[in-house]
Amino acid sequence: MVEIDGSEGEGGGQILRSALALSMLTGKPFKLVNIRARRPKPGLAAQHLASVKAAAQICGAHYKGGSIGSAVLNFEPGPVKAGDYHFAIGTAGATALVLHTVCLPLALRGGSDSRVTVLGGTHVRAAPCFHFLDVTWKAYMKRCGIDVELEMTRPGFFPRGGGEVRATIRACAAVRPVSLTATTELTTAGGFGAVADLPESVSKNMTRRIAHKLKMGGVESHIPVEEWENGPGAVATVVFRQAAVPTLFFALGERGKPAETVADEAVAEALAYRESGAAVDAHSADQLLLPLAFADGPSEYRVSEVTGHLLTNIETIRRFVDRDISCEGNRGGVGTVRVGAAA
User: Fold this and answer.
1) Boundaries of every domain in the chain
2) CB-based contacts of 266: which residues, under 8 Å, 6+ apart?
3) Residue 303 CB coordination number (10 Å)
4) CA distance linking residue 203 with residue 221, whole number of Å
5) Pairing of strands 188-196, 225-228
6) Segment 29-84, tens digit of pLDDT
7) Domain 188-276 has what CATH class?
C-alpha cells in the first residue's frame, strides 16, 4: 500500500490523477489523505470524482472514499482492460484531466485499442483545453510512441459544460525515451481567436490584439477568427509550430473580462516560453514526465519553467516507480529534467 499525503507539494488534484494512473500501471494500491488540501474547497470535486470512477471502470478497481468532498481515498487496482468507455463528469469539469488519468494505463496495459468519450468542460480554468491536448500533448505522446487520436464534437465552457471529447487510444508495446534540450528560433506563430455564442467583434478584437502583441515581441503571425456553438465562451490561442513539437498557449474569456485581456494572457505565456529558449513548455513538463517514467531508456528535457506541478509529480512518481528522476533548476526558472535508466 502506497501512502500519500495530498497536502504535500502543490497540494492539488494532480496528485490524485497521477496516483490513479501510477496505481493502474504498477498494480500497487494506494491510500491518499488530505486530498486537495491546499485548494479553497478541499476534497474531491466532480471532475476528480469522475477521474476516480473512470480509473475504477477501466481496471475493475475496489475503492473507498469516492464521494464529493471526500478527503481520503483508498484505491486497489485490478487489470486494465481495453474497450469503449463513456465518462460523464456531470458539470463543466475538465474533460482533459479525465483523459490524462486513463490514457497511459489504457495504452500500456490495455492490450488493444480503446475508445473513450468524456462529457464536461473542454475549455475551463486551471486545466488544459482541448486544443492544447490536440496540438501539444498529443504530439508529445507521439514522441514517446503513444498514439492518441482526438476529436471535439462539441465545446463546453464554464458554467454550462456540455462539451464532448472523443479519444482513440492505440495500444503501445513500449514507451520511447526522449531528448529535448533545445529549440529553434521562433519567429512565426499561428493560433486563433474563437467565440461561442458571442458577438463576432469579440473574436476580432482578440485576434487583432494577439497579432499586434506578437509583432511587438518580434513574431509574425496569422491568427484567424472561429465561431463555435454551445457557449457563451471565448478562447485565444497562440501556436509555435517550429518548436520541438507544436506548442500551444491559450487564455479563456470570462464575464466582464475584455477580449484584449484574454489575448494579452495568451501572448504573455507564449513569449515567455520563446524567451526561455527551452524545448518543453511549463504545462507539458509534468505531463511528459509520467510516460517517461516507464520508458525503455533514460530521457532528458529542458523546461521553460520549473513549476510546483512538476516538482509534485516527480515526488508522486517516486512513490510508485523505482527510477532516478531529477530536476535541475530553481522553481520559477528554466530547468532540466532527467529520468535515469530503468532499475
Assistant:
1) 2-173, 188-276
2) 191, 210, 236, 237, 238, 249, 250, 251
3) 28
4) 16
5) parallel
6) 999 999 887 888 888 888 899 999 999 999 999 999 888 889 999 999 999 999 99
7) alpha beta
Q: Report whether pLDDT(12) > 90.
A: no
Residue 10 has pLDDT above 80, yes or no: no
Identify the CA nearest to 149 among candidates 164, 165, 160: 165
Residue with cell 520508458: 295
Helix, coil or strand: residue 234: strand
Residues annotated catalytic, as ranges: 309
* Span 2-173 CATH architecture: Alpha-beta prism (3.65)
Instruction: State CA 257 to chain mean position distance.
Output: 24
Distance CA(35)–CA(37), nearest Å, equals: 5
pTM of the model: 0.95
Residues paired with residue 306 on neighbouring β-strands, in sequence order: 331
pLDDT at site 42: 86
Under 8 Å between Cβ of 190 and 214 = no
C-alpha cell at 315: 515526488
Q: Beta strand pairing status for 114-120 and 84-88?
A: parallel
